[in-house]
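Quick log. Single chain, no ligands specified.
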Amino acid sequence: MRKLIVALVALMAAVSAMGALGWYSDYVLVSLNGGADGYYWIGLDPTFGTQFNGANLGSVVQGQMVELGADMRYWSDTADRDGGAYYRTIDGTGFQEVIWTQTYLGGNDYQGLAASSDNVAAGLAVGTHTLTVWAKSWGTGQGDSWLTGVTGENYVATFGITAIPEPTTLVLVGLGVAGLLAYRRRR
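-> predicted structure:
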């Protein structure tokens, strides 16, 4: 009996020494065609801002930019975070890991920043596409901490790619404008 009690006490001490870790104030940054970054919240509490999951990010002309970055904040009771990354995939094929720059904020808090410079629209065909993201921080004592939804799913938003206007269309529009200007001048 004494051995059982000693084993239970040792197990409880090991579990309590592990500490906790988690995420707060986590945003994916999206910039369309070089515009200002839009901050999209990924996480469990929808009151922190515009949700990334289920969002329609808008539309861009084929060949233009949809840049992606991150501003993540996370914590560890044992202050053992060594770094982190966000991951993204387009239309569920393959994935890319983008390692962010980590800053120690004090106490047990960290911030991971990745500038909006990753053009996720390069080479995409005209149509609607899905952008899926998730994140991970890692450390020596507590291991990896994944930022995914409640049941382990990742965060998914959509955006559109529209066709580049044909030169003929541009010429017709130009002729129409020139005709209107000539008509107005004549009057």
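DSSP finds two helices and eleven strands in the chain.
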